Amino acid sequence: FSDLSLLQDSQEDTDGCELSSSVVLLDFVSQDEMLTPLGRLDKYISSENIFNRQMVARSLLDTLRAVSEDERDCVSVLEQIDRLADDSEPTVRAELMEQIPHIAIFCQENRPSIPFAFSKYLLPIVVRYLSDQNNLVRKTSQAALLVLLEQELMERGDVESLVCPVLVDLTAPDSSDDVKTEAMAIICKVAPMVGRDVTERLFLPRFCEMCCDCRMFHVRKVCAANFGDMCGVVGGEATEELLLPRFFQLCSDNVWGVRKACAECFMTVSSASSPDVRRTKLSSLFISLISDPSRWVRQAAFQSLGPFISTFASPSSNAGQFFRDEERSGAQTHSTDAEAVCAQQEPAGREEQDEDRAAQTAESLTADDSQKCLPSSSEEIPEQELFNSFHFWRTPIPRIDPELELLEEDRRPSAPALDRKHLQELLENLEPHIDDPDVKGEHVLTSLSVEDSVTLNLAELNGFMCAVFQRRVTRDDDDSDASDCCLHPEDERKSKQQDVVPQALLEQYLSMTDPSRAQTVDMEIARHCAFSLPGVALTLGRQNWHCLRDTYETLASDMQWKVRRTLAFSIHELALILGDQLTAAHLVPIFNSFLKDLDEVRIGVLKHLYDFLKLLHQDTRRKYLYQLQEFLVTDNSRNWRFRSELAEQLVLLLELYSAQDVHDYLRPLALCLCTDRVSSVRWTSYRLVSEIIRKLSSCSSLLVSFLGELVEKFCHSQKWSGRQAFAFVCQLSIEEECLSLDQFSEHLLPPLLQLASDPVPNVRVLLAKTLRQTLLEREYFLSSVNCQQVALEHTLVALQTDVDKDVKYFASVHPGSTRLNEDAMSTTSSTY
After folding, report:
1. Which of 126-130, 251-255, 461-465 has the lowest mean pLDDT?
2. CB 222 within 8 A of CB 181
């Protein structure tokens, strides 16, 4: 018991301490609550606790809001901000700078009577912090400055007289390397905001000087990365007279990171130059970047090649519009999109690592010595680039040790090598199976006999598979000229001649489909070629399509599905460029092959199905009616967005076909989609059905037949979701005026009213909404002329006395929110 007594005494002492602490804390809180906002600000701004001063900086905006009615108190808060700006702790100053843009916006919106608030109290802090010794404070002030400029919170005179001189001074030769680099980066970002005049007078001389900074390659890299933006600000004359000589120097810099930055901004530099300079000077400069010793420079140059070629287009063509990354914008359609972007970023990580390793030595090396530090064109390819599951449809053939292979060679019977004739026979045997949607690349490989596959090396295998897909693409191309394959190399080169862009640039672009480029430049080079092809085609014009046709067909049969996917997303744009005749002859066969490709490729075709088909002749367009049902079959049944996109496209396709064709081909697809297990697909399909009703309303017999089918399949459906779908379609048909009220009253209203006795409350709820919010809004249904008026009133009365409170509510009152897209979906069943 003594131990227990001691434990109890100890517990009482502990409870007493906790109680006294709680009392002190409550007393402390109550004292704080008794203080005014300014009192609390004064109390904690001089606290020795760093955390308290951080909290003061973080709560400045709230304090301003609390005293916003008193102008004198607002000025007091602003004065305290000036006091807090002198805090010795960097984290407090950084926290204050993060709040400056928000405080500035508040002062502008809520205190117009203090016009000097920003210029007197806030702007000096921003300018002072731009040269702060702490890196975090400097970067925070730079970010705040950009926000203030974007929000137009700074007077142009203040920017020119206060901000710009400070930024220029920070790039002086005696500045530290980090400060100089940061200042030049912020100058390049500020230049487009302050305009041409200020940039030419204050920034341009220092920018040109920094481009030649022989001591700091980081500064030169910043200048190179922003060179295009600077050219765009100062205009063509200053670009050619002052900037281009520096650009030529940067393109031959001894640090490969600088040259790579030049390659990446080449398009914008070219856009600011005259056509003569672009053709005579920039073209040869770009060729030197394409043949650069560094693989990363060549990679960036080839990625910029298509955009650079597009700058040769006539100003009215807007070739640059085709460099939208639409194929990557459909991230919600397929989860692989994010992985495709990541795959493109893989080389960049290695690039930054290599550059950091060379950073300490690059400054002191001569041009000749520095080349030893640059990645050579024959350097080993990163392991992650040798194989990626998105690049191939099969497991890569493992490498075999040469010595082991020699040891094993004597133990195995020799097999005859596959000759061209044997490969051709295999190709012909496999041809009938290529169109089978269940046959994939790996199944094609397994169809080879053991003897055949033993001696089939990797190069032969790749060539074989490309041949299979090439034949698949071109087998329907009746107008292809057989003599093309017999062209002499010299004749073939002449067939690619044109006079729109320098021929050397075009030849380099056409070489991007060369398999060796993937090993020596970039594994993604074919996709970059495919992505820029519409812009290049627009630049060359349809009269020079013969220069690009072979390249396009090669890309269309590329083994990487990402390349074909990119083409599929842009084939409608290319069709618009080429016109109906060239499209029918050269694009339709490729379009047909994409229809039978992987879902990742088919989605590109599907998203622009209407845009492509509307460009075709009516007879050609009608052939695709038989193939639309193939879109209902996907590699993955859970890919419901594919079916939702199909429903969206079918709505657009209605205008391209006659009422009879719509009834015969599109109607079955719509009815099938209406029974999809995903509510989002069904919802889109209900709108499709209502639009089909509109399309068929011009033909009485087809309309009556379709409405009768809707009643039979949905109104009399055994599933409550089908009966609910019928109510949806009826509501849409009235709201969107898809058919006349007489036709609705005769064919759809009687079966609709029968749903009042449906055993499922959700169906009756939607019926009540439809009657109250849609039908009774029309004078037609309130008139005695309508033969269904009595039945309509009796049905509404029955719903008002329904046992379900939701049914009773929607039948009795007119809710404030009456739109179909808000209310209707709340009662629909949803799988996801």
Report:
1. 461-465
2. yes
- Tokens matching residue 687: 């709108």
579: left (phi over 0), alpha (psi -120 to 50) or beta: left
Question: What's the residue count for the chain?
Answer: 832
Contact between 623 and 603 under an 8 Å Cβ cutoff? The reply is no
Please report which confidence band the pLDDT of residue 442 belongs to, taking 50, 70 and 90 as the band edges: very low
The helix-helix angle for 283-290 and 295-310 (nearest 10°) equals 150
Instruction: Report d(CA 608, CA 570) in Å as an integer.
Output: 8
With contact defined as beta carbons under 8 Å apart, do 491 and 546 qualify? no
- Distance, in Å, from the CA atom of 559 to the CA atom of 78, rounded to the nearest integer, reads 65
Computed over its alpha carbons, how large is the radius of gyration of the chain?
A: 36
Residue pair 192/183 in contact (Cβ under 8 Å)? The answer is no
Q: Does the structure show a pLDDT above 60 at 37?
A: yes
Considering only CA atoms, which of 783, 750, 788, 756 is closest in space to residue 769?
756
pLDDT tens digits for 571-628?
A: 999 999 999 999 999 999 999 999 999 999 999 999 999 999 999 999 999 999 999 9
Cβ-Cβ contacts under 8 Å for 491 (sequence gap 6 or more)? none
Long-range contacts of 818-823 (CB under 8 A, 24+ apart): 818/773, 820/731, 820/732, 820/735, 820/774, 823/769, 823/773
Q: CA 575 to CA 591: how far, in whole Å?
A: 10
Give me the sign of the Cα torsion angle 689, 695, 698, 700: negative
